[in-house]
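Q: Please design a sequence for this.
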């Protein structure tokens, strides 16, 4: 039998993500990323343990896309967030999920890090670079900026 995955542990409240769960209904769960110190970097998953998009049911898909839209809207209201990247990779955690990654202005201040190709920003490289640079343990994620963005987004989500 497989060990219970990290997302399922969050759903069962065995693991508390930084700032707590942001949004949760019968179909989807939204919470802050557990190990990258970038305020507003969220993970959106179906509640049901499925491993790819083909297994996602229509009603789950409806909720996932609704929440993606709402959370993106909430994030771009924040100062310094120019853009929101949405990715699904599935290499570390088997439970299907979307990364909702805020691209802040300050992320462009690393000129030597080779995140551009022909003067165009390479979003995938930036995402990967920032994830490596801001990899953090649980303690570092207890941060006021992170908590305040979580509570603002939670408030916007409950008023859907
Ligand atoms: Zn799971």
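A: Design:
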């Amino acid at each position: 039998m497989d060990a219970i995955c990290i997302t399922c542990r969050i759903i069962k409240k065995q693991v508390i993500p930084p700032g707590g769960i942001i949004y949760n209904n019968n179909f989807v769960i939204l919470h802050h990323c557990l190990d990258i110190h970038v305020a507003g970097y969220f993970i959106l998953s179906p509640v049901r343990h499925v491993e790819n998009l083909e297994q996602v049911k229509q009603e789950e898909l409806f909720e996932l896309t609704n929440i993606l839209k709402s959370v993106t809207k909430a994030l771009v209201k924040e100062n310094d967030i120019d853009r929101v990247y949405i990715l699904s990779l599935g290499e570390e955690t088997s439970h299907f999920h979307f990364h909702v990654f805020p691209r802040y202005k300050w992320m462009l201040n690393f000129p030597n890090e080779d995140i551009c190709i022909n003067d165009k920003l390479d979003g995938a490289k930036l995402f990967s670079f920032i994830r490596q640079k801001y990899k953090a343990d649980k303690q570092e994620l207890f941060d006021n900026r992170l908590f305040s963005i979580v509570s603002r987004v939670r408030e916007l989500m409950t008023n859907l």
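Q: Thanks. Anything notable?
A: The pocket of zinc ion is lined by residues 5, 7-8, 49, 95 (CB under 6 Å). The chain has four helices and seven strands.
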